[in-house]
Amino acid sequence: MEPETLKKIEDISRRIFEALGISAAGLTVAWQEAQERIYVSLDAGAENGFLIGKEGRTLEAVKEIIEAAASRAVSDRVDIYLDIGNYWSKIEAKALETAQRAAEETKHSGRPVRLDPMHPMLRRFLHKTFQADPEIETFSEGEGIWKRMVIQQKRAQP
Q1: What is the spatial distance between Cα 131 and Cα 54, in angstroms, rounded to a whole number?
Q2: Are residues 47 and 75 in the same domain?
Q3: Residues 121-149: pLDDT tens digits?
Q4: What is the mean pLDDT of residues 11-38?
Q5: Which pLDDT band holds residue 156 (cuts at 50, 70, 90)?
Q6: Contact between residue 63 and residue 50 where contact means Cβ atoms under 8 Å apart
Q7: Are residues 20 and 76 in the same domain?
Q8: Could you give the CA distance from residue 31 to residue 43 in angstroms, rounded to a whole number?
Q9: Phi, psi of 156 (to 5 degrees)
Q10: Under a CB-based contact definition with an 8 Å cutoff, are residues 40 and 66 in contact?
Q11: So what's the pLDDT on residue 145?
Q12: Residue 113's domain spans which residues?
């Protein structure tokens, strides 16, 4: 990821938060190579709850606004990962723990394990995390946005 692109995204994010009356002093923007994502993080203290909203809906809306503005600024589609007050990081940690237990279960039993339906960003995170595991594979099943992730033993390659 080009440093100029990250700088543009940081400037856009800062302006959007400030337009919302939120101090962006703790804003960070970084490229996470392992997850292949642009990570935008802000701890706004007492304003975290306002920015996250019920069930993360406000956070998702702010993310969409930043993505739209950034995509226009760099003349290319930009996908960002917005984390306010470590909201998503905590959810990811819990989901990763559950998925690791499921992976161990499938390694021992040989049977696939289906996780509860989850947000697309969370599924993507888990798929990327398990991508390098030599013993298991993951895929999504279901319709719509909230699909299940399935963890199963890797099939032998012919």
Answers
A1: 32
A2: yes
A3: 899 999 999 998 999 999 999 998 889 99
A4: 93
A5: low
A6: no
A7: yes
A8: 18
A9: -65, 135
A10: yes
A11: 87
A12: 89-153
